[in-house]
Amino acid sequence: MEIVPNVHLIPSGFVNCYLGIDPDGLTLIDTGLSRNASAVLKYIASLSRRPSDLKHILITHSDGDHVGALAELKSASQARVYASPIEAQAIEAAHPSRDLKMQGMTAHLFKLVQLLFKAKPAKVDELLGDGQILPVLGGLQVVYTIGHTPGHVSLYAPALKILFSGDSIVAERNGTLRCSRGMNTWDEAKAQEAVTIQAVLGAEIVCPGHGPVVREANGKFPSAAPAR
Question: What is the pTM (predicted TM-score) of this model?
């Protein structure tokens, strides 16, 4: 689905992956679950492109629903992979960058479904620094948005006023935005700080890791502490 010219949302179930198109190649932001590799490749083919046209894979964080298909897509495309230092270490070890806050029945249920989130190790080619500008989509700014995970990053395209927020922001079905919170959030206070950073970037479109793409995003960023 085209969000704006040259930026697409790849349908992939409950987690969102985004594809940017530049004259010299394609950029994928997050990969989805392991089963999502074929969906990404089919979407690329639907644009009359080849796997080798995928030049960059940018990872917001190392959770299995965001990196599950990374190893297969990197092998198919030979794309370079980018992540923050903390998340890169976790990706290469095929392990999340933080432990989930689970106990009791929740922990038991997670064990039953964790195979769905399993990822293979993958090499990260370049470490992302806060404020770094990547030469895609007219200049894509790396924004450290620590909180959901200890090395989470978001990506902002000022030329398009689009923020790819990963899981630092969740979009509800009604189009409202909220901070990361709960058992899968490493530090809720830092997650709130991350949203405060994002709110002043000037984004008009927020592309979250989960939930719908939110347009006319100015004024929709949460300013209070996450609701419980």
Answer: 0.92
Q: Which two tokens stand for residue 149?
A: 């995970």
The beta strand positions in the chain, using DSSP E, are 2-4, 7-10, 17-22, 25-29, 54-58, 80-83, 126-127, 133-134, 140-144, 153-157, 162-166, 169-171, 177-179, 205-208, 214-215
Q: What is the mean pLDDT of residues 58-85?
A: 97
Closest CA to 90 of 122, 58, 117, 132: 122
- Which of 227, 228, 205 lies closest to 218, judged by CA? 205
Domains in the chain, please, with CATH?
2-94+119-215 (3.60.15.10)
* Cβ proximity of 61 and 124 under 8 Å: no
Are 184 and 148 spatial neighbours (Cβ–Cβ below 8 Å)?
A: yes
